[in-house]
Design brief:
- The complex is a heterodimer.
- Chain A folds into two domains: 3-138 and 173-230, Rossmann fold; 258-299, no CATH class.
- Helices cover 29% and strands 17% of the residues of chain A.
- Chain A has helices spanning 3-8, 20-35, 56-65, 83-95, 144-152, 157-170, 199-202, 276-284, 293-299, and strands at residues 41-42, 71-76, 99-100, 109-113, 126-130, 181-183, 187-189, 208-213, 218-222, 228-230, 258-262, 269-273.
- The N and C termini of chain A lie far apart (69 Å).
- Chain B has a domain at 106-172.
- In chain B, the strands form two sheets. A six-stranded mixed beta sheet of chain B has the order 6-7-8-3-9-10, with helices on both faces.
- In chain B, helix 8 (187-204) links the parallel strand 7 and strand 8 (207-211).
- In chain B, helix 6 packs across helix 7 (157-169).
- The chains are: A alpha/beta, B alpha/beta.
Chain lengths: 300, 263
Amino acid sequence: MSLDQLTNAAPAYNFAYLDEQTKRMIRRAILKGIAVPGYQVPFAAREMPMPYGWGTGGVQVTASVLGESDILKVIDQGADDTTNAVSIRNFFAKTANVELTTHTKEATVIQTRHRIPEEELQAHQTLVYQVPIPEPLRFLEPRETETRKMHALSEYGLIHVKLYEDIATHGHIATTYAYPVMVEGRYVMDPSPTPKFDNPKMHKSKALQLFGAGREKRIYALPPYTDVVSLDFEDHPFTIQEWPDTKCAMCGAEGVYFDEVILDDAGNNMFVCSDSDYCETRQSEGHLGPLNADYKERMQ
Amino acid sequence: MSLDQDLPLLSVKNLSHFYGQQLGCKNVNFDLYPGEVLAIVGESGSGKTTLLNCLSTQIIPTDGAVYYRNRKGQSDNLYEMNEAQQRILLRTDWGFVRQHPRDGLRMNVSAGANVGERLMALGDRHYGKIRDTALDWLEKVEIQADRIDDAPRTFSGGMQQRLQIARNLVTNPRLVFMDEPTGGLDVSVQARLLDLIRRLVSELGLSIIIVTHDLAVARLLSDRIMVMKDGEVIEQGLTDQVLDDPHQAYTQLLVSSILHVGS
């Protein structure tokens, strides 16, 4: 082999970056997680070429479940075009060469940072969550030995102490994201920092849901049609966020999860769908919100 | 019921614990009856706390057995129960008041949540009821109702200790372990706390095992006393009997070393 060939050869990545032995190990953890819904399975998380907090756990799970025929979608706070989503999508474009999409309907694997798409997921789809802190009891009980024991013995009084504190301080349960859920009546699980708006979508979802925490080295899973119940008090039942009388400024959607966008320094704002694909799909179908450029055109 | 009162609640048989080669406590035998307060006294390092930790299943002893009569009247060896059963006992039928409130309380959650935690652990899911019970208990331990939402770290030492007692008694336990509950408190606060414990004991018919090095506390609270030295029980009997007529040289020394102020 001549020298220029040696130096010019592209660095050889295994399909989807991770070597096959690592994927095997991660798939084993995933299978165990699916077998015991809500249970945090320890796994030997690898160093990934991105910082902790950028979704190293989710990326490893995605890399392990991705096949050549898969179609991948990556979202960050519901949007396909923000930094985290773009960088992870580029990462897999480079290392796995799979088909990429922004359409929820087309995707077979969706990696998400903190949102579940508005469009209902189907049985052939897999949703991969990036999880920063997998332990729902962590902020009340710092000892890992103790929290593991509490999970093992189903001692979950402590999680209600957190909700009690919310009501005592704010008059209502003020936890709005990472809202603890009970899985199949057995394990209390942190649904990653998704807004509680999305908690009901996890319940009996047709899609497989996988959770990967890279820094904490934990994987857990919700197999399809799993019972996922948000914890609450009898006299303070679980509710999701609501935006009464609010429509998406771009597509006119109601009853979805909204982002508030500040328009100027005079206090004007607008609400738009946090799920960018949902919003664009609606616009292409002819639904227009009041601040959409085409809407003004149509009005004239 | 009268039959139950005649049977020991806790029966300790030949309990010994070694930390490797180091002796913790050796050959301890005693029975504790319902409604009885037992004080374990002795100098530091005499094995009092080791014994208390063994009894409350925080440590599994090297040798011996402890039988606990549950509410159904069955007597089971604590060390043959599984960990889940032990932990259920510890947060329902038992209480544990620690010397340092920070070991027994959650310092960063409110007083109300501290009291309510055991209720929620038992499956109570009604905020209003939990709060009412918490208020009720704060009143019983003389903490003003308007402090219910304050974190215990804003409380004085005496208040923290009273809160710890409320937190433990909220599930109506039958047996409470106390490890130097008055340690580190000034005398007037100590006196109020002892008064409170005495009242609660008589109102609720609690059995208490209290570890203390303070003989005055033992005399005020306990029916029976057990004196420990170098890991062994050297003398036990009715409190007044032991303190007024100590037989062992060490107990005599202990009794005579109490400071008397005034005449």
